Amino acid sequence: MPNLDAAFSALADPTRRAILARLALGEATVMELAKPFEITQPAISRHLKVLEGAGLIVRRVEGTKRPCRLAPKAVAEIDQWLGMLRQTLTANYNRLDDVLAEMKTKE
Amino acid sequence: MPNLDAAFSALADPTRRAILARLALGEATVMELAKPFEITQPAISRHLKVLEGAGLIVRRVEGTKRPCRLAPKAVAEIDQWLGMLRQTLTANYNRLDDVLAEMKTKE
DNA sequence: CGGTTATATAACAATATCGTTATATAAATC
DNA sequence: GATTTATATAACGATATTGTTATATAACCG
């Protein structure tokens, strides 16, 4: 069972999305991830903790460093949830719905 | 330019996700949406305001009622952003990454 | 018109979030 | 062994979020 609350909540922050975007290019250490931002290192550490807690990233220990990488599983789970809405988007009855709404408006 | 902050933030709440799930089945009024929940009507009204602010739903006026429906556009935009991560998930270099990580661990 | 129904808004308390600075820890290096 | 580097944690203030109750508004109904 994924924690969608935590996952979406984690994605709601632009700094965290930028971190994920960076990690999409491959593994990176905390300092590497912090560099592009103007916020302090502790702030980044906490963002990473949030991302880890949401299952969006995983970390390993390598000496003093803690390289981070994307966790495919969590992203897949978010994707799965969105799939439900996506289905509605593309379904025909959605267009029908639009038409009906249009008709009612004109009444 | 979509507001991903607002969109993901809106999705972070389970009540709001449930509302969206309900709307995926078709239009519904505020009262209809409120029924399954134990929270009060004003709370639902505010959740809807959040969803509307995030562009995830649209509302029309029909007498006293304000029927809500999913807004395809916002969902598509979220989807698009996630696409970036999805790509990483399925890409082969991700597996390569795993292998490299494995090697480093064993060193 | 008067009462009910559908919804919104304001005010408020409880809790969460985000950034900062200061400090801790542990590995790396000189 | 002392210093530097990489990262984490604690404490704190500012702001945001969520729910509640009370109340407003406007359409509907008899």
From TrEMBL, chains A, B:
Matching PROSITE patterns = HTH_ARSR_2 (PS50987)
Q: Which GO MF terms does the UniProt record name? A: DNA-binding transcription factor activity
Stored CDD domains: HTH_ARSR
Xref: SUPFAM superfamilies: Winged helix' DNA-binding domain (SSF46785)
- Pfam families cross-referenced by the UniProt entry: HTH_5 (PF01022)
Q: Which residues form the HTH arsR-type domain?
A: 1-90
What InterPro entries does the record tag this protein with? ArsR-like_HTH, HTH_ArsR_DNA-bd_dom, WH-like_DNA-bd_sf, WH_DNA-bd_sf
Name of this protein: Winged helix-turn-helix transcriptional regulator
